[in-house]
């Protein structure tokens, strides 16, 4: 018995893309877009990014103090580096241990305005309830001399001004 094809192939049905061709095109586009994204990085705002990172740093340090029921203090190390130490109580003179995983180093071209602080000065200490011993204000300055301020309240809140 002869076979009849009721749906003969037309020219338009042969002009599509196979799944493999489509995946190759998407992979090439993904590579091109990621290269473009890396090249657009210089257009980012280093001052804004550094301010957000610093705010996140203080929030993370506070959460670590609460979650571990320990005292965590932040020390001004250099004009672009803050270090973290922990002990049982904020008033402890000895027994402080460094927590290098929490340290903050600002990106190149952005520094803390160090006019109010000296190296190795304790900026603040978060107790086990998340309260700060000091109400501090940090100013962050970029290479163009633009600045942003960040304040840590006694209750532990961090505000970017």
TrEMBL record:
Keyword Glycosyltransferase: no
Coiled-coil portions: none
Species per Swiss-Prot/TrEMBL record: Desulfonatronospira thiodismutans ASO3-1
Keyword terms: Membrane, Transmembrane, Transmembrane helix
The name this protein goes by in its record: Prepilin-type N-terminal cleavage/methylation domain-containing protein
Transmembrane segments: 20-40
Superkingdom to which the source organism belongs: Bacteria
InterPro entries, alphabetized: N_methyl_site, Pilin-like
A Pfam family recorded for this sequence: N_methyl
